[in-house]
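Exercise 4. Each item below gives a protein and its sequence. For each, produce the structure-token representation.

Item: ASCH domain-containing protein (Streptomyces colonosanans).
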Amino acid sequence: MTVTIADAYDARLYAQARHEAEPTGALFTASPRPAPLTARQQRLNFELLGQAISPRHQAPPTDPEPTAIRALTIKPPWSDLIALQDEQLAKRIENRVWTTNWRGTLLIHGGQTIDKQALALPAVREVLPDDYEPIQGHIVAVADLAGVHADDGACTRWSEYGCFHWELRNVQTLQQPVHATGSQRLWKPNRQLLDQITAANPALTTRLSG
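Answer:
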């Protein structure tokens, strides 16, 4: 099946495929409503991506300091839940209404804005310590984006219905979070930021050398 831009304009898909949509946690905290993407729209999203309609996550070919590493800004407490080391409790699925073909080392950046409604959710409260303080505006962990799959029900306790589920593996928490300014979608960290991370967290030197 060949998908054209015209095919996607009759729904929200094209805009969602090219622009940042609702941040993580929005569907957890919003009132009940239809899934943001139907199964057909999810398939179209994958096919549009395959036609390179949304390549903005790619590094410029003339970049003087190329790196294969990318970063993703996520609202606390969701970013801090990813940074947890207990695999039974940690969030290893990131929910998005857009997908990507990119795979590799991913910096987890805690955004400046806190999802305050999420802090009242029982599933969140039972995992976070009583004295929890959100880490805002900092890189808090490094992970591998191992895959992305369309909503298949509830693959983990943290999965949101109707979203693409980004599969996070090999998560390492930064013992010393590093300040950074985030951005929408996948963004490319510069070498200076990577050097700051490894200087504060020497155990990550080899992993962030690419």
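Check: The chain has one domain: 5-55+66-204.
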